[in-house]
Amino acid sequence: NLENGDPDFIKYMKSIDPSLTIYNAMIPFLVSIIEFMFKESFLVLIRYDAEAQEKIKKANLKIPLDRVIQVKNKELLIEELIAETFTFQNINQTSKAYKDYLDIDIRKIFYIKKKINNKIFRMMDKIEEIIQLRHSIIHHFGYYTDLDQELFLLYLNVIDSAHKLFIESLQKKYNWKIE
Question: Other C-beta atoms within 10 Å of 159: how many?
Fold first, then answer.
């Protein structure tokens, strides 16, 4: 059947390719990169942004007493408490955190079309696709037979491009020069 290119056989052979397992297993790491970028940047920005500090003073959070004691003992920063109220693997929560405390519109930053690996698409759509893929893999034991090297490298390049767009937006907002 291999000689005549039987599509079912080709599909079956592709589905048992061990590299698919590797690419599926690496998707959560891509989302960790996104989460790390957004969370760590948020922590730094709200710590040093004067307007964010004013908003923190006015924030009304339910904080367990043991966490308050950690802040009192300088084991935990107030900014870390704020960050803990958001999930940075979720674009809606990430957008809310940045909008509420820093007046940064995450969706606007990534609502552009970009050409990556000779394909044009809206960045926000691809970022959300990667996050949803991770959610499916982790919470529903999803396994994707179309997640080959080409698609994984596209996702990796999307993350790289998103990082650059994010840094550019911070440079513009804060009038920074980051090399």
Answer: 19
Using alpha carbons, list the distances in angstroms from residue 173 to 102, 103, 110. Answer: 10, 10, 15
> Is residue 110 within 8 Å of 127, Cβ to Cβ?
yes
Per-residue pLDDT of 126-146, as tens digits, reads: 999 999 999 999 998 888 878
Q: Strand, helix or coil at 105? A: coil
- The tens digit of pLDDT for each residue in 72-82 reads 999 999 999 99
Q: Which of 126, 136, 134 is nearest to 158 (CA)?
A: 126
Dist CA 83 CA 94 (whole Å): 10
* pTM, two decimal places: 0.86
CB atoms within 10 A of CB 16: 9
